[in-house]
Amino acid sequence: MLSTDTIFAPASGFGRAAVAVIRISGGGTRFALETIAGGVPEPRRMSLRRLRDPETGSVLDEALVVFFPGPGSFTGEDGAELHIHGGAAVRAGVLRSLGRMPGCRAAEAGEFTRRAFLNGRMDLPAVEGLADLIDAQTEAQARQALRQLGGELGRQVESWREDLIGALADLEAALDFADEGDVPASLEARAGGAARRLAGEIEAVLRDSRRGERLREGFVVVLAGPPNAGKSSLLNALARRDAAIVSPVPGTTRDAIEVACDLGGLPVTFIDTAGLRETEDVVEREGIVRTRARLDQADAVLWLDPVDDPCPPPAGDPRYIHLRTKSDLSPAAGQDLRLSARTGDGIPELLDLLSRRAGDALGTGDALVTRERHRRALERCAEALRRAVDALAVDQGELAAEDVRLALRALGEITGRVDVEAVLDRLFAAFCIGK
Ligand SMILES: Nc1nc2c(c(=O)[nH]1)N(C=O)[C@@H](CNc1ccc(C(=O)N[C@@H](CCC(=O)O)C(=O)O)cc1)CN2
Ligand SMILES: Nc1nc2c(ncn2[C@@H]2O[C@H](COP(=O)(O)OP(=O)(O)OP(=O)(O)O)[C@@H](O)[C@H]2O)c(=O)[nH]1
Ligand SMILES: [Mg+2]
């Protein structure tokens, strides 16, 4: 697709609404406004305009129109917004009129943001943060996404990158001056120190990087135990709706059933599973295979067995929380956590416990790394830096320089910029090589 096209799309979703926003971006924006809105309004001010079908001259809507001149716009191009009435017919009329203009076409998914990235308005982490913000279901997820949209990860990676460019400049200069006594040794020492320090900083970030990924994806709680223990009943009580079938027949649940909840601002997904037992029923057996797969992904497992029919959980796995169900059936005994889906007894205590577990695993949204993509790139970066440090220790300057280049490329992948020009600029600026 040519980026010279002018693109348009509804920015406000598709349901019935009071107002719908149509977004336009590209070099044909002014022409489109002249054609459909009778002129280009004063930049960045909302103006009330009558929109007309350019072919028939008939009135499409009374709309609020905003013009954003490039390059100081969201995409970096000329852009506009038409705030129209939200009905399907009005929207269809405006979109049809825009589509008939030369050089104008409907935008592809994410195309406005893609242009913002290509025009240098956003780096990749900001693009990812924007996507996460739109998907965020809880406040903690939104907070994390906003920090990334605001450039926190991008700035940190850029700052590491600059330090590494300095180290690489030192290494390359040391190689250039290899025949000049003490100079190379001190440059190599400085580069080695920087590589060691950066590897340490990145490793520290990596140590708690899973919290950011978990917050993005949600904390996964699996309900498991013997058949008929009351797993589906508890799921329904937690979801406050009839999400799963409950029956007195053991082996009722076969497919895993997921319910996403907001636990005090934290995203938690509860998964009800088929009860575990030996069985000849092929459908039930497939259900149990699925239960085992879900248990592998769980951040916490609620192991349920009834007070009147005990079946203890596997020992030694810290993710398991043992809960005795149907507490209404027999008086309290022992120290197990007890609950009843029927009376609601014990459920507030369970939610408390899970909030604490989820809070510990997710943090409140101060993690820097939120995606596997970031984590993998940082892991490669830190490994390359450790190799560079080792190479310098045995006087292998060329190898060390190559590893630092690999580390730089890994960082560049995070922000979406991979170039060598900056290294050269830095090298020539820092050293007056007058020879
Ligand atoms: N109506 C409307 N609401 C919206 C957006 C939008 O595009 N339109 N946004 C879109 O996602 C978000 C706001 N984000 C935006 C980010 C940058 C610019 C922008 O034009 N930036 C220029 C000028 C900034 C200024 O006024 O000082 C710049 O950064 O140079 C606009 C919106 C959320 N709300
Ligand atoms: N008295 C009492 N009965 C309960 C309670 N919770 C569930 N039951 C009953 O126990 C039976 C089984 O409940 P389910 O929630 O379907 O059990 P399950 O663990 O999902 O069973 P499977 O899907 O077969 O593995 C049903 O008859 C429920 O009404 C409870 O707290 N107290
Ligand atoms: Mg069930």
Automatic annotation (TrEMBL):
Gene3D superfamilies xrefs: P-loop containing nucleotide triphosphate hydrolases, Probable tRNA modification gtpase trme, domain 1, tRNA modification GTPase MnmE domain 2
Residues involved in (6S)-5-formyl-5,6,7,8-tetrahydrofolate binding: 23, 81, 121, 435
Binding site for GTP: 228-233, 247-253, 272-275, 340-342
Residues at which Mg(2+) binds: 232, 253
Cofactor binding summary note: Binds 1 potassium ion per subunit.
PROSITE patterns documented for this protein: G_TRME
Positions of K(+) binding: 228, 247, 249, 252
Gene Ontology, cellular component aspect: cytoplasm
EC number assigned by the record: 3.6.-.-
A biological process term (GO) from this entry: tRNA wobble uridine modification
Cofactor(s) needed by this chain: K(+)
Keywords: Cytoplasm, GTP-binding, Hydrolase, Magnesium, Metal-binding, Nucleotide-binding, Potassium, tRNA processing
Subcellular locations according to the entry: Cytoplasm
Keyword Mitochondrion: no
Span of domain TrmE-type G: 218-359
Single Gene Ontology MF annotation: GTPase activity
Pfam families per record: MMR_HSR1, MnmE_helical, TrmE_N
Top class in the EC scheme: hydrolase
Assigned protein family: Belongs to the TRAFAC class TrmE-Era-EngA-EngB-Septin-like GTPase superfamily. TrmE GTPase family.
HAMAP family registered for this protein in UniProt: GTPase_MnmE
General function of this protein: Exhibits a very high intrinsic GTPase hydrolysis rate. Involved in the addition of a carboxymethylaminomethyl (cmnm) group at the wobble position (U34) of certain tRNAs, forming tRNA-cmnm(5)s(2)U34.
Subunit description: Homodimer. Heterotetramer of two MnmE and two MnmG subunits.
Name of the protein this chain belongs to: tRNA modification GTPase MnmE
Natural source organism: Salinarimonas soli
